[in-house]
Amino acid sequence: MGRPWTFTKRIGAGFIASLLVALVLAGTSVVALLTVRTSNKARILDLSMDLLEVERLRRAFSDKVSSGRGYAVSGDPLFAQDMAVSRQRFIATYERLKPRLDGEPVAALLESAAHAELEHEESVRTLLTAEDLRISRQKVEDIFEARVGETRQRAFEALRVLAERSEERLSLGIQEAVEADRRVHLLILLAASLGLTVAAVLAWVLTRRLRPLQHEAEVSAHRFQSLVEGVQDYAIYLLDTQGRVASWNPGAQRMKGYAEREILGSPASVFYPPEEVRMGQPELDLARARRDGRLRMEGWRVRKDGTRFLAEVIITALRDAHGELQGFAHVSRDITERRKTENTQRLLAEAGRLFHQFLDPDLTVAELARLMVPEVADVCVLFLLTPSGELKPRAVKHVVPEKEQWIWESVRRYLPPPNAPEGLWHVVKSGRSELVSHVSPEALAHNAQDAEHLALLEKVGVHSYLAVPLRVGTQTRGVFVLATSTPERRLTPTDQLFVEELAGRAALALDNARLFREAQDAVELIGVAAHDLGNPLNTLQLLLRRLHRMELPPGSEKVREGLGTGLKQTQRLGQLLLNLLDLSRLSSGKLVLDVAPVDLADLAHEVVERFAEQAEEAGCKLVFDAELGLVGRWDRLRLDRVVTNLLSNALKFGRGSPVEVRVERGTGPRARLRVRDLGQGIAPESQRLIFNRFERGPSAGKHAGFGLGLYIVQQLVEAHGGVIRVESSPGEGALFTVELPLSQPGVEVGPEPEPPGPPPAPS
Questions:
Q1: In this structure, are residues 469 and 428 in contact, taking their beta carbons and an 8 Å threshold?
Q2: Would you say residue 359 has pLDDT above 80?
Q3: What integer pLDDT is reported at residue 745 of this predicted model?
């Protein structure tokens, strides 16, 4: 038998046993702590995965919108294919995300986003059938922006709210992890105070029960680590209470360029632009996050190489159970390209409104230069080719207005050499853009024509350069030059594509403005010529009338007949001159009505009497019927021209049949004039065209004129607030109906200049 245990031995054995139990309990508690932390990481993993899927959902929809916009603008089927692929990515991401969010509060937001995307898809598909209707591309673009923009905005808003809620879940998950760590520590202290007997049992139970959990936690930790390393679009890192970097993920390294060993322990201010650091912006942001608990913002950040990018940043203050600050969780992503896409769409829309608003080339180029600065570049210079073939600057814009004078001095004194192998003339001759993303000091000195020119370029600052031709068809109208003045900002191929698209529209707008100005000049010339020809024509008509009334010797019948024919032709010429004069005033918007009380029946009777001789020659019986007392405030001369043109046409096309002229009261306070002939009539397809300018009916034959009569009639009637319509069938004649208001609202204006020639006569 062994020696019995003494009390001391018993105490020692109990002490050793208690120590062993305490050690086991402590070890088990540590394992529990690690297990809970790993479980928290697994939870954060799931939340991060949800956030990543939401971002993929947003990116797929954004790609689909961009492709749909491209297809609406260009009609390129590749854009339609890209749009379909983006939609499939959206649907696939939605199907993966839906079961993950099942039962979560954000599940309703996901369904709302999917519904908004479906509405957008239906709107896009409806509008894309516009090409089958042969609607113009510009019209499709306008309709696209008006109808699809609302559904697109709802989808973007739903996705934005979904992303915000997912980010909030991630931030709350991080906070909950910190709180869970605190609670685990308290539980460990409580467990350590239990008795030695219970401690042994608990040690055995915990060891047995926690082994599977530990294995699962290790697997979750490995998955979490894989996710963090795979997240390339988000920079996720922690800051300590002093704002120094405490952790760093691969996404942050990819986005900002710092390796983990380089950045740990560095202040977060290294990511801010120098000017914001001088203003104390990093400290202010952390103070706001500490005060509000969470700060979300957008701003410029700096990479390791000094380049800048636009970032969306979320800073969350991490606190313990007692509210003590433990540090900050920092999540950011690069939104430069997304913002650039949004700005591109906005600038294209604004440019479209600009090109439709201004018809003056000078105003167009000035507004175009203003549009580019500072959205796309710091400097914008627009060169246009003169008729003599010279390249002259027409517009200059700089983000710093004081530097514009230096640019004007440079481009005026130092015109680009025509024979240079590169530069503006090379762009003009080749028709291809020229992009230099980084202009070195050596290249700047090489392109300067002398030392003074180099000094001007250095004062302005040229660090990036883009020249795009303004082309209409195969002709180059000028060159669009953009530049940046700071090393941090560079022009990219994306900017080149956008500016080329904008330059094409600008060139077309400038060409349209030029053509419009030339057309206006031609119309004014027609008006001046018609007015100046009126005086000699009036004198010629008076002489012909006097000769026609003189007694001629016997046997001079042919002379009298010739004088009558000449008089009729001068009267017709006078009518043509009046039409040309009205055409000039209508086209230039300078038509002025000399309104006064006019009896429509009296006016129509005068015109009928004036056409009595022509009606007799044409074998037409004139039937006139009028209701008296229809007096309105109209321009008598212009209404005389309306009745004259209608009656002249009726006699030409109704030769040999009766012609009827009626004046009667219409519906409401309106007077109605009807002119009917029983001639060859007008085909239905031609009735829609006869009121167009320079449009002549297919049956005009030898009666064909310039196609201005009915156009001017319609314009004069509408200028009085009236309407004109035609009813006709082939072989049954035509009925023209004019309705005029008996009381014309508006301001009465003074008389216009004297028209050329005598009063209208039969043509």
A1: yes
A2: no
A3: 40
Confidence of residue 740 (pLDDT cuts 50, 70, 90): very high
Q: CA 404 from chain center: how many Å?
A: 28
pLDDT confidence band for 352 (50 / 70 / 90): low
Residue 649 pLDDT grade (very low, low, confident, very high; cuts 50, 70, 90): confident
pLDDT bucket at 704, cuts 50 / 70 / 90 = very low
Could you tell me where the DSSP H helices lie in 416-556? 424-430, 441-447, 451-460, 493-549
User: Where do runs of H (alpha helix) occur along 193-280?
Assistant: 196-230, 250-256, 260-263, 274-278
Distance of CA 199 to the CA centre of its chain: 73
Greatest Cα pair distance, the chain, in angstroms, is 181
Does 203 have pLDDT greater than 90? Answer: no
Closest CA to 180 of 290, 320, 294, 327: 320
Which residue's structure tokens are 């996705």? Answer: 159
152 sits in which H/E element: helix 149-192
Residue 550 pLDDT > 50, yes or no? Answer: yes
Are 236 and 256 in contact by the 8 Å Cβ rule? The answer is no
Full strand arrangement of the beta sheet holding 723-728? 622-626, 659-665, 670-677, 734-741, 723-728
The Cα 503–Cα 435 span in angstroms is: 15
Phi, psi of 440 (to 5 degrees): -80, 160
**C-beta of residue 642 within 8 angstroms of C-beta of residue 738:** yes
CB 483 within 8 A of CB 465: yes
Please write the tens of the pLDDT for every residue from 492-524.
787 777 777 777 676 666 666 666 666 555 555
Residue reference for tokens 């696209």: 144
- From the number of C-beta atoms within 10 Å of its C-beta (0-12, 13-18, 19+), residue 51 rates as buried
**Does residue 675 have a pLDDT over 90?**
yes
Assign 3-class secondary structure to 390-410. CEEEEEEEECCHHHHHHHHHH
What is the pLDDT averaged over residues 252-279? Answer: 88
What distance in Å separates the CA atoms of residue 700 and residue 652, rounded to the nearest whole number?
9
Q: How many CB atoms lie within 10 A of CB 734?
A: 25
Q: Are 566 and 604 within 8 A, CB to CB? A: no
Sign of CA dihedral 415, 417, 422, 427: positive
Least confident of 172-176, 187-191, 448-452: 187-191
Question: Which of the 8 DSSP states describes residue 130?
Answer: G
Mean pLDDT value across residues 560-583? 66
Write the CB contacts of 186 (distance below 8 Å, at least 6 apart in sequence). Answer: none
Asked whether the beta carbons of 144 and 135 are under 8 A apart, the reply is: no
Transcribe 744-757 into DSSP letters.
--S----PPPPPSS
Pairing of strands 475-484, 622-626: unpaired
- CA 503 from centroid of its chain's CA atoms: 15
